[in-house]
Each structure stands twice: as structure tokens, then as C-alpha cells.
Design a protein that fits this description.
Helix content: 55-70%
Radius of gyration: 15 Å
Shape: globular
Number of strands: 0
CATH superfamily: Tetratricopeptide repeat domain
CATH topology: Serine Threonine Protein Phosphatase 5, Tetratricopeptide repeat
Largest sheet: none
Order of helices and strands: HHHHHH
Number of helices: 6
Strand content: under 5%
Length: 112
């Protein structure tokens, strides 16, 4: 952090660590700063979505996931987190319109 204080990716990673340590307000500041430094940093949006979902702010979390999906629709983290979030609530109707490709599922063997 000392050598690259303005790195959005590092700030997003710092937010992840703070989230895991239950330092929620610090994590939110780190994610928002990362988002401000680089509006294309997908992990900042994913971190905010996870954080807001923890706060039961589902509508705002969904908005962050949508932005992450618009930035990087092919990113596996975006697809997994969005898919897992809406699979929990059985809200496929919200995820399906913004999904560009089949949503990744568990590793199943094809029928032979």
C-alpha cells in the first residue's frame, strides 16, 4: 500500500480484508475510494454488493452487481457472485435479463 497508494485494485483487496475482519465502515470507505479512483474496477463493485447485502440493502447491492456486470459481463467472479446471490432468493427473473451467456453451474458430467 505504501508504494502504490492510488491503486484501485489494492484498495479493493484492502476492502476485502477489512470486510473479513468485520471492519465494515472501513471496508466501505476502501471500496468507494477504489471505485472513485478507477470506475472500471469490478472488485470494488462486487465488494460493495457483498457489503450492502450484509446490511440487508438488497436493492443497492443488486445495483452494484448490475454495474459490475455491465463493466465485465464475462468475468467469472461477476457471474458467480450474481448467480449465487439470486439463486439464494430464487430470483432468476432479475438475473436472467442481464446474463450474456449461460450462468455457470456445478460441475456436472454430460450424459453419455
Amino acid at each position: 500500500m505504501a508504494t502504490l497508494p492510488n491503486s484501485a485494485a489494492l484498495l479493493a483487496a484492502k476492502g476485502d480484508v477489512q470486510f473479513r475482519r468485520a471492519e465494515m465502515s472501513d471496508a466501505e470507505v476502501s471500496y468507494l475510494t477504489a471505485k472513485k479512483l478507477d470506475p472500471k474496477e469490478v472488485h470494488a463493485y462486487l465488494g460493495l454488493a457483498r457489503l450492502y447485502s450484509t446490511y440487508s440493502m438488497y436493492r443497492i447491492a443488486y445495483g452494484e452487481l448490475q454495474i459490475a456486470h455491465q463493466i465485465a459481463p464475462g468475468d467469472l467472479d461477476v457471474q458467480r457472485r450474481g448467480c449465487a446471490r439470486f439463486r439464494e432468493k430464487n430470483n432468476w427473473r432479475y438475473w436472467k435479463p442481464i446474463s450474456p451467456a449461460p450462468i455457470p453451474t456445478t460441475n456436472r458430467r454430460p450424459n453419455s
